[in-house]
Structure formats: structure tokens, C-alpha cells
Design goal:
Blueprint (H helix, E strand, L loop, with lengths): L2 E5 L6 H12 L2 E4 H10 L3 H11 L6 H13 L7 E4 L5 H13 L4 E8 L2 H15 L7 H15 L1 H7 L4 E5 L4 H13 L2
């Protein structure tokens, strides 16, 4: 099982790139955002709890996120590997993921980070917000709050995965095709 964490700030292109990578490498794509939206749309108990945080532009607490993601992983027992998009976001989540994967005889093979300037990402999200209907993509203050949360809670994951020799940074600016080529070069060398 080849498990890859696709890492980056909101708007970095994780979802777009995941679509190409899942096909190319025959991976199961698990997007935290998609899992949240499913739970919100279906008005699950976890979805109701998450809605409060998402509407405020905050990251959902680790415990709720992990519960949803582990449920989703368990739906794919025969996969070649999982492409995690938006998870883990904290060291606590990474440790929970490592523990869970070890319990099924697997591990994270690599973390690949899409890196881009905040101003470019804010513009991307505001543009996406015009058509996505996502409240958290329509308010610049909420977007910047998400980046502050990312810097405080998610950026420490870089060191966590560097210590395991599993962190790879990729320039997230350019055409979709150029970025896919950069990501593929990293994955092909795992």
C-alpha cells in the first residue's frame, strides 16, 4: 500500500492535483474537504459538529477530523494506497494516522507539499468562492484566518515528516500540467 499525504495551504491545488495523481498511480483519493462536505450535506452528527468550525473559517478539531477520516479509510480495505488530501493537518492527526496505518501493516510513504505565496492563494480562493458556494472561500478575513491556523497548527508537520525523511516540497505555481509533472517526479522516486 502506497500512502501519500498531499500537503499545502487551502487553495494550493491539492484537490486538482489529487484528481490526476489518483488515476496515474491507482490510489484512493480521500479529501478531508469532501468527507466534511458529505457529512454536512447528509446532516450526520459529525457533520453538525464540524459545521460550526467551518462556518467560522476555523480548522475542525483533530478528534472530529480523525474520526471521519478513519471511517473513510475503512471503506477501502483493498486499495493500492491512499492519497490523503488535507489530512493530517496537525502532529496529533499525523500520529493518529501513523498508529492506524501501522495497525493494518502500512505507513505513509511520503508527504508532498504544494508551496505557493499566500497572496496568490487568497486570490485563487476568492475566485473559487464565486462559483463553489463555499462560505469559507468568499471572505478574505476567513481565508487569512485559515492560513494563520495552518501556520500555527499544520506547518509543524513539515518537521515531523522531515524527521522521517518523508517530506518533499514542490513548487505549486504554474500550469496544472507543470505542477503534475513536478509531483510525479517526486512520487516516481519513492
Amino acid at each position: 500500500m502506497t500512502n501519500i499525504v498531499l500537503f499545502g495551504k487551502p487553495g494550493a491545488g491539492k484537490g486538482t492535483q489529487a484528481e490526476f495523481l489518483k488515476e496515474k498511480y491507482h490510489l484512493t483519493h480521500i479529501s478531508t474537504g469532501d468527507v466534511f462536505r458529505y457529512n454536512l450535506k447528509n446532516d450526520t452528527e459529525l457533520g453538525k459538529q464540524c459545521k460550526v468550525f467551518m462556518d467560522a473559517g476555523d480548522l475542525v478539531p483533530d478528534e472530529l477530523t480523525t474520526k471521519m477520516l478513519l471511517e473513510e479509510i475503512n471503506k477501502h480495505p483493498d486499495t493500492n494506497g491512499i492519497l490523503f488530501d488535507g489530512y493530517p493537518r496537525t502532529i496529533s492527526q499525523a500520529q493518529a494516522l501513523d498508529t492506524f496505518l501501522a495497525s493494518i501493516g502500512s505507513q505513509v510513504a511520503a508527504t508532498v507539499a504544494l508551496e505557493a505565496d499566500d497572496e496568490i492563494l487568497v486570490a485563487r480562493l476568492l475566485e473559487r468562492g464565486k462559483t463553489s458556494g463555499r462560505i469559507d472561500d468568499q471572505d478574505e478575513e476567513k481565508i487569512r484566518n485559515r492560513y494563520q491556523e495552518y501556520n500555527e497548527k499544520t506547518a509543524p508537520l513539515i518537521g515531523y515528516y522531515q524527521a522521517q525523511n518523508k517530506f518533499h516540497a514542490v513548487n505549486g505555481i504554474g500550469t496544472i500540467q507543470e505542477i503534475t509533472v513536478r509531483l510525479s517526479a517526486v512520487i516516481d522516486n519513492l
